[in-house]
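Team,

Forwarding the record for the chain on the shared tracking sheet. I've put the sequence and predicted structure together so nobody has to dig through attachments.
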Amino acid sequence: MTEPILFRNLMQIADGHLEEFKAAVRAAVDFAGEHGPQLLVEVFIDEDRMECTSFQLYRDSDAVLRHWELADPHIQAVMAHCTVKDFAVFGDPDARVRAGLGPDVPFTPHLTGFHRLAG
């Protein structure tokens, strides 16, 4: 059975890069909305703290790999304006995704749940 994978990414926006960061994130999310395999992408920004938190929900590891294949230029454009403060994965991605994320990324296994997303 396929279980969902949820990414939570906390980013520190570089000083003086707020508007460029927001534009790059909007372009990346627009691209994902049109072409990406994500079931959900939500981005929240705290301008006072210059922090951004994004959530991405994937159906399975194949969807994560497809996202990486499609979105690298957009990811690079966003990363030009921030650093990752914390990144966590909720779910149990396969060895390919784990290798792509590296050994320092924590994984929290899925227990149960539901969603009402179409698809």
